[in-house]
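Anyone opening a protein record will find just a pair of labelled lines. The record below illustrates this layout.
***
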Amino acid sequence: MEERALEQRVLVAYASKYGATEGIAEAIGRSLRDAGLVAEVRRCRDVKSLEGYTAAVVGSAVYVGRWRREAADFLRSAEGQLARMQVWLFSSGPTGEGDLDQLLQGWRFPSALQPIADRIGPRDVAVFHGALDQDALNPFDAFVARTVKAPAGDFRDLDAVSAWASRIAGQLQGTEVPAAPVGA
């Protein structure tokens, strides 16, 4: 099993505006490496090629139900290559305490990107709580956060992130039954 893990080279690509999603991506990469996989964590805009990767985890901060442009552009431009790999998708952003399904009212993934996700066929799609530091926001984002009454604070559950990444590692190493594809 360990030999197979060494063959797996995983890209963790992310788009983050204020750093919370970057922290989630780093936690995913750390968990994958702890499981014996080779994992590289990179901003979507810095990924020039998917050559040599056997799997990818792609995620973005979510603002008003949308992924950051660089993550959406990455999915579009790499769609064909991603469709031939094992892929997992994640979003981060909702702040506040409570159940994510209730907070998001059933939202799981940006509807504008759903057709691309369907063609890629991710193994799983996850949503994680985010963080909001009012003092770090630009004026427009601060206005939007106040308007939608987004709670400030760090609501990320890095244990949940690590558990999800551990399941990914198990799937890649053949030690865990994969989740059903999105839409199945």
Remarks:
- The two ends are 29 Å apart (CA to CA).
- The domain at 2-172 is CATH 3.40.50.360 (Rossmann fold).
- Confidence is low (pLDDT under 50) at residues 1-6, 180-184.
- The CA atoms of residues 16 and 24 lie 10 Å apart.
